[in-house]
Input
Amino acid sequence: MNNYVTLVGSISRSPAVIKFEDGSKVARFLVTTPKVYRKNDGKYSSRLDWHRVYAWGNMASFVENNAEVGKKVAIHGRLVNRTFLDKKGKQRSSTEVELRQIIGL
Output
């Protein structure tokens, strides 16, 4: 599989689950990963990178029942790039992770 990503971080937002009339569901949540970097003065600092994650079907049910804010996880999936129009009609883009596997750490 060429488009595959693994992230290790913390669940930062409880899953928002949408259930459809046909019985399918999608769960969306955020994972943060820390990044440590060196500033111009030589001192180290850190920041959090935020990643949008979504899961369908059985994986959505698993996330809905087991994901907790603050829990450390490793997630595996594929990157999905989307373009959309915002409320002002401006074109925006977003990259999300389509979840294939999640492991609690």
